[in-house]
TrEMBL record:
<dbReference type="InterPro" id="IPR032465">
    <property type="entry name" value="ACMSD"/>
</dbReference>
<protein>
    <submittedName>
        <fullName>Amidohydrolase</fullName>
    </submittedName>
</protein>
<dbReference type="GO" id="GO:0005737">
    <property type="term" value="C:cytoplasm"/>
</dbReference>
<dbReference type="GO" id="GO:0016787">
    <property type="term" value="F:hydrolase activity"/>
</dbReference>
<keyword id="KW-0378">Hydrolase</keyword>
<dbReference type="InterPro" id="IPR032466">
    <property type="entry name" value="Metal_Hydrolase"/>
</dbReference>
<dbReference type="GO" id="GO:0019748">
    <property type="term" value="P:secondary metabolic process"/>
</dbReference>
<dbReference type="Pfam" id="PF04909">
    <property type="entry name" value="Amidohydro_2"/>
</dbReference>
<dbReference type="InterPro" id="IPR006680">
    <property type="entry name" value="Amidohydro-rel"/>
</dbReference>
<dbReference type="GO" id="GO:0016831">
    <property type="term" value="F:carboxy-lyase activity"/>
</dbReference>
């Protein structure tokens, strides 16, 4: 299950070394021991190849040119995160059809066993055996789940997921959920399905991916109403996202108000810019102080995933 050797990267190594130095300088200047990134992707090579091909072709769910910056093999990608000083990261996998999630969970469990700094990740899809394999994943040590409403094209309130949500809620495990309508809307994206879901399962620890872009204000409202809901920063504030889905600066005050429930996410390796840009887009926010940055880059996630701050 090893990746094939990547294309020659000799020409980019000096750039990577310089980027590594600058990334490490950000968190070390804040007095942190590193970074916790709750939104990174590792998946079987056959699946990742298809994901990259989809981005390369600017598929309809992407909607624009989207070059992959870290198109390296698996071991190199893990090493890159470690060089950056990422202490914990995720292997966010997600199915787009039935009879795929259980296999992805098996792969993710193996990946977590030989990659101890990866938070054991699992996923699900609305199908008859979803409750069974979700319970199995939790028994096997899953620490975080991923749900992708846009790619999966399913309603999070599908009755086939009732037992799944209840089980995850009772286990107190976070779910990174792509439910906003960016980069292109889906049939079930947007805040309304999530409001209905949280009305039924109010203790769910949802992490709203991309801060719910472009429905930022609506998902901030949800976060304020539900104390277990969190937001991740994935792609938000970067020049790439600001071109088409700009953050509404009328909502800037709520960044500080909800600062203890905002977690750093990068979307590594599937980003069309460098990791440094993902971090700098936060450090350059007006009115944000070091305490806020320490929370977002490390401390908020360390509290969520008990023991990571030790």
């Amino acid at each position: 299950m090893t990746d094939a050797p990547p294309p020659s990267t000799t020409g980019c190594r000096a750039v990577l070394t310089d980027e590594t130095t600058q990334v490490r300088q950000i968190w070390s200047t804040l007095g942190l021991r590193g970074v916790i990134d709750v939104h990174t992707h590792f998946m079987p090579k056959s699946v990742l190849d298809k994901v990259w091909h989809y981005f390369d072709s600017a598929g309809p769910l992407v909607g624009r040119t989207w070059p992959i910056t870290y198109r390296d093999n698996e071991s190199q990608r893990v090493n890159t995160l470690r060089q950056f000083g990422v202490r914990r990261f995720t292997a966010l996998v997600y199915p787009h059809k039935p009879r795929m999630a259980a296999w992805l969970n098996q792969w993710s469990a193996r990946f977590a066993r030989y990659t101890p700094d990866c938070l054991a990740t699992a996923t699900f899809y609305p199908e008859p055996d979803a409750a069974e394999y979700v319970e199995e994943a939790i028994r096997g040590g899953a620490q975080i789940f991923k749900a992708h409403i846009q790619v999966g094209r399913y309603d999070p309130n599908d009755p086939l997921l009732d037992w799944v949500w209840g089980t995850i809620e009772d286990a107190g495990l976070p779910v990174v959920i792509h439910c906003g309508s960016g980069p292109t809307p889906g049939e079930h994206t947007g805040p309304e399905p999530i409001e209905r879901l949280l009305h039924r399962y109010p203790r769910l620890r949802l992490i709203i991916a991309h801060m719910g872009m472009p429905e930022y204000a609506e998902f901030f409202d949800i976060c304020e109403r539900h104390p277990e809901v969190r937001l991740d920063t994935t792609m938000v504030f970067t020049s790439f996202a600001e071109e088409t889905m700009p953050f509404p600066w009328s909502e800037r005050h709520r960044l500080r108000q909800l600062g203890d429930r905002i977690l750093f996410g990068s979307d590594f390796p599937n980003i069309p810019y460098g990791y440094l840009e993902a971090m700098r887009s936060l450090t350059r926010l007006p009115g944000i102080d070091d305490a806020w940055l320490r929370g977002v880059f490390y401390e908020n996630a360390a509290r969520l995933f008990d023991g990571l701050a030790q």
